[in-house]
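Chain A, query sequence.
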Amino acid sequence: MIGPLKDLLSHQAWADAVFFRAWEASGTLEDKDLRTRTDHMVSVQEAFLQVLKGDAVAIAERSLPAFQELKARCEAGHQVLRALGRGLDAESLAKSVRVPWFPDPPCVIPVADALLQVCLHSQHHRGQCMARLKAIGATPKNVDYIIWLWKQKPEPRW
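Chain A, predicted structure.
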Protein backbone atom coordinates (compact mmCIF):
# COMPACT_ATOMS: atom_id res chain seq x y z
CA MET A 1 0.00 0.00 0.00
CA ILE A 2 2.88 2.39 0.70
CA GLY A 3 4.09 2.63 -2.92
CA PRO A 4 0.66 3.18 -4.50
CA LEU A 5 -0.33 5.70 -1.83
CA LYS A 6 2.88 7.68 -2.33
CA ASP A 7 2.19 7.59 -6.07
CA LEU A 8 -1.35 8.90 -5.54
CA LEU A 9 0.00 11.76 -3.42
CA SER A 10 2.59 12.58 -6.11
CA HIS A 11 -0.04 12.38 -8.83
CA GLN A 12 -2.33 14.69 -6.86
CA ALA A 13 0.37 17.36 -6.61
CA TRP A 14 1.09 17.12 -10.33
CA ALA A 15 -2.61 17.20 -11.25
CA ASP A 16 -3.32 20.18 -8.99
CA ALA A 17 -0.40 22.08 -10.52
CA VAL A 18 -1.69 21.28 -14.04
CA PHE A 19 -5.15 22.49 -13.03
CA PHE A 20 -3.79 25.77 -11.66
CA ARG A 21 -1.79 26.36 -14.85
CA ALA A 22 -4.88 25.67 -16.98
CA TRP A 23 -6.98 27.98 -14.84
CA GLU A 24 -4.34 30.72 -15.00
CA ALA A 25 -4.16 30.43 -18.80
CA SER A 26 -7.95 30.66 -19.06
CA GLY A 27 -8.19 34.34 -18.18
CA THR A 28 -10.99 33.49 -15.73
CA LEU A 29 -9.18 34.03 -12.45
CA GLU A 30 -12.18 35.84 -10.95
CA ASP A 31 -14.70 33.07 -11.73
CA LYS A 32 -16.63 32.68 -8.46
CA ASP A 33 -17.49 29.02 -9.03
CA LEU A 34 -13.84 28.07 -9.60
CA ARG A 35 -12.67 30.10 -6.64
CA THR A 36 -15.36 28.65 -4.35
CA ARG A 37 -14.79 25.03 -5.34
CA THR A 38 -11.01 25.36 -5.28
CA ASP A 39 -11.13 27.05 -1.88
CA HIS A 40 -13.15 24.11 -0.59
CA MET A 41 -10.72 21.59 -2.11
CA VAL A 42 -7.66 23.33 -0.66
CA SER A 43 -9.33 23.92 2.72
CA VAL A 44 -10.13 20.22 3.05
CA GLN A 45 -6.54 19.33 2.15
CA GLU A 46 -5.36 21.74 4.85
CA ALA A 47 -7.83 20.35 7.41
CA PHE A 48 -6.66 16.79 6.79
CA LEU A 49 -3.06 17.92 7.16
CA GLN A 50 -3.96 19.39 10.55
CA VAL A 51 -5.58 16.08 11.54
CA LEU A 52 -2.57 14.07 10.33
CA LYS A 53 -0.15 16.31 12.23
CA GLY A 54 -2.26 16.00 15.39
CA ASP A 55 -3.16 19.70 15.40
CA ALA A 56 -6.56 21.10 16.25
CA VAL A 57 -8.52 21.77 13.09
CA ALA A 58 -9.05 25.50 12.67
CA ILE A 59 -11.69 26.49 10.17
CA ALA A 60 -11.69 30.26 9.90
CA GLU A 61 -14.38 32.41 8.33
CA ARG A 62 -12.80 34.48 5.59
CA SER A 63 -13.65 36.08 2.31
CA LEU A 64 -13.26 34.09 -0.88
CA PRO A 65 -9.54 33.97 -1.68
CA ALA A 66 -8.09 35.16 -4.96
CA PHE A 67 -6.43 32.81 -7.43
CA GLN A 68 -2.84 33.52 -6.29
CA GLU A 69 -3.65 32.82 -2.63
CA LEU A 70 -5.41 29.57 -3.54
CA LYS A 71 -2.48 28.46 -5.66
CA ALA A 72 0.05 29.33 -2.95
CA ARG A 73 -1.95 27.49 -0.27
CA CYS A 74 -2.33 24.44 -2.49
CA GLU A 75 1.37 24.32 -3.33
CA ALA A 76 2.31 24.74 0.34
CA GLY A 77 -0.03 21.92 1.31
CA HIS A 78 1.54 19.63 -1.24
CA GLN A 79 4.99 20.41 0.13
CA VAL A 80 3.80 19.27 3.56
CA LEU A 81 2.15 16.17 2.06
CA ARG A 82 5.37 15.35 0.21
CA ALA A 83 7.41 15.59 3.41
CA LEU A 84 4.81 13.50 5.22
CA GLY A 85 4.89 10.93 2.42
CA ARG A 86 8.64 10.47 2.75
CA GLY A 87 8.14 9.21 6.29
CA LEU A 88 5.37 6.74 5.52
CA ASP A 89 5.81 3.17 6.61
CA ALA A 90 3.36 0.38 7.46
CA GLU A 91 3.27 1.33 11.14
CA SER A 92 2.58 5.03 10.56
CA LEU A 93 -0.09 4.24 7.96
CA ALA A 94 -1.90 1.96 10.40
CA LYS A 95 -2.12 4.58 13.18
CA SER A 96 -5.60 5.93 13.78
CA VAL A 97 -6.71 9.54 13.45
CA ARG A 98 -10.03 11.11 14.34
CA VAL A 99 -11.76 13.26 11.73
CA PRO A 100 -13.44 15.90 13.92
CA TRP A 101 -16.04 17.16 11.45
CA PHE A 102 -17.82 13.78 11.74
CA PRO A 103 -18.54 13.83 15.51
CA ASP A 104 -21.36 11.34 16.06
CA PRO A 105 -20.46 8.60 15.79
CA PRO A 106 -16.78 9.52 15.80
CA CYS A 107 -14.93 8.98 12.54
CA VAL A 108 -11.71 7.17 13.49
CA ILE A 109 -9.73 5.86 10.52
CA PRO A 110 -6.19 4.76 9.71
CA VAL A 111 -3.76 7.38 8.39
CA ALA A 112 -3.70 5.44 5.09
CA ASP A 113 -7.44 5.99 4.64
CA ALA A 114 -7.17 9.67 5.58
CA LEU A 115 -4.50 10.18 2.91
CA LEU A 116 -6.56 8.25 0.37
CA GLN A 117 -9.55 10.48 1.17
CA VAL A 118 -7.42 13.59 0.57
CA CYS A 119 -6.49 12.28 -2.88
CA LEU A 120 -10.00 11.14 -3.85
CA HIS A 121 -11.73 14.28 -2.55
CA SER A 122 -9.32 16.48 -4.48
CA GLN A 123 -9.72 14.36 -7.61
CA HIS A 124 -13.50 14.80 -7.47
CA HIS A 125 -13.39 18.57 -7.12
CA ARG A 126 -10.52 18.99 -9.59
CA GLY A 127 -12.68 17.18 -12.15
CA GLN A 128 -15.52 19.58 -11.44
CA CYS A 129 -13.15 22.51 -11.90
CA MET A 130 -11.89 21.17 -15.21
CA ALA A 131 -15.51 20.77 -16.35
CA ARG A 132 -16.14 24.39 -15.29
CA LEU A 133 -13.14 25.55 -17.33
CA LYS A 134 -14.62 23.82 -20.37
CA ALA A 135 -18.09 25.27 -19.72
CA ILE A 136 -16.74 28.83 -19.70
CA GLY A 137 -14.81 28.32 -22.93
CA ALA A 138 -11.36 27.61 -21.50
CA THR A 139 -9.17 24.59 -22.18
CA PRO A 140 -9.24 21.93 -19.46
CA LYS A 141 -6.40 19.44 -19.15
CA ASN A 142 -6.49 15.67 -18.83
CA VAL A 143 -4.90 14.84 -15.49
CA ASP A 144 -5.86 11.17 -15.29
CA TYR A 145 -3.50 9.01 -13.28
CA ILE A 146 -2.63 7.05 -16.44
CA ILE A 147 -1.52 10.28 -18.15
CA TRP A 148 0.83 10.95 -15.23
CA LEU A 149 2.22 7.41 -15.51
CA TRP A 150 2.56 7.71 -19.31
CA LYS A 151 4.51 10.94 -18.85
CA GLN A 152 6.91 9.08 -16.52
CA LYS A 153 5.52 10.50 -13.25
CA PRO A 154 6.54 14.14 -13.73
CA GLU A 155 7.05 16.45 -10.80
CA PRO A 156 4.49 19.25 -10.39
CA ARG A 157 5.28 22.53 -12.18
CA TRP A 158 3.55 25.29 -10.24
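The chain has one domain: 2-150. The chain has six helices and two strands.
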